[in-house]
Structure formats: C-alpha cells, structure tokens
C-alpha cells in the first residue's frame, strides 16, 4: 500500500479565490469553484484513506456531485491531484492585462501575479503533491501531461492577445519556456529548503527569459 503524505493542502483563502476569478465570466467562475471543491474533498479523503484506497465514487459522494461530474472536470484520479487552478487563474490574469502591454511582459506578469495570489498556500500544496509524485507511479506519469495542458491553455490565451493562430509553434515555444522557467524557479526554491520569497524567485527566472526572447 502506498504511504500517504501528511498535511494535505487546504482550500485557498477567500481573497485569493476572488482574485483568481478576476477576468473570468460567470460560467468560468462556477466551474472554478466546483473544481476546487472536488479537489479539496479528494485531498481530505486521500490524506485519511490513502491514495490507492480512495475512489472516484467516494470523492463524488463527499463532494455531493455525481461521478460523471467529477470525470467532467478530472478525467482520472491523478488529474485531481495534479491539476490545479493555477492555469485557469493565469489565463484570467493574462486576459486582464492592458491591451497595449508587450506580449512577453503580459505573460510574465500574469504568471508572477498568479504565484503571488496562491503563495500563501503554495508551499503546503507543492510539498504534498510532490510527495505523491515521488510515491505513486501513476501520479508521476501524469505530471508531464498536466504541464502540457497548462501550456495549451496559455497558448490559446496568448494567441487571442496577439492576433496570431493558437497552433503557431512560436507561441507554444514561448509559453513552454515560461512554464519551464517557473517550474525551475520552484525546484530551486525547494532545493533551498523553501526559504526566501517564491514569487520574487519566479519573477527573476521569467525576466531572464523575457530579456532573451522576442515575439
């Protein structure tokens, strides 16, 4: 039986949730709240019962939704663990940036803005999820797919902003590079005992990319 890491993350602060919904329509806000509710229930069950012993049916019952609703938001149990609201919040922040702001600056500020919004809860959540990634092969395998989905969502939003096609390789490369920079900043933060200001570290990493890339 896979050991379950302790100290499952808690729901984001109400103020962070409100800020994360900035720039989203009513339908998107409702989806965001439903997705968060399912995740938080799943986190509690996994913490109590263990990852392997927690089923989609149990998660649905505890969240007071149907199993089909859970699958609508999360195709697999691994997605519940790894898929976060960070991509959704970042898309909203990117769309809310001034229209005349350079694309790379807008993307950098959206990503660093997202990190600031969730920083208060990010340390506990990152630690908990990374423990599952290390211990559960299925979660580890799903991690890269989750990162690809985030790149796709942000690429579409950046395409809307620039008037370019979402399937352009240049756009995907830029977004992928920025997401990679953010990931490396988080890993660097973790390797230094999670000391220091994580949003500032992310800002530094993305500034390196911005000054060396053009769009």
- Largest sheet descriptor: none
Q: Which residues sit in consecutive blocks of at least 5 with pLDDT less than 50?
A: 1-5, 11-19
First CA to last CA: what distance? 49 Å
Tally the helices: 10
**Share of residues in strands:** under 5%
Mean pLDDT: 83
Q: What is the H/E string?
A: HHHHHHHHHH
Quantity of strands, as a count: 0
Helix content: over 70%
What class, by secondary structure content? mainly alpha
Radius of gyration: 17 Å
Shape: globular
Description:
By secondary structure, the chain is mainly alpha-helical. Helices cover 74% and strands 0% of the residues. The protein contains 10 helices and no strands. It has helices at 14-20, 26-49, 56-63, 67-73, 77-82, 86-96, 103-135, 137-162, 169-191, 198-212. Helix 7 packs across helix 10 (198-212) and helix 9 (169-191) runs antiparallel to helix 10. The radius of gyration is 17 Å and the shape is globular.
Element layout with pairings:
Blueprint: H1 14-20, H2 26-49, H3 56-63, H4 67-73, H5 77-82, H6 86-96, H7 103-135, H8 137-162, H9 169-191, H10 198-212
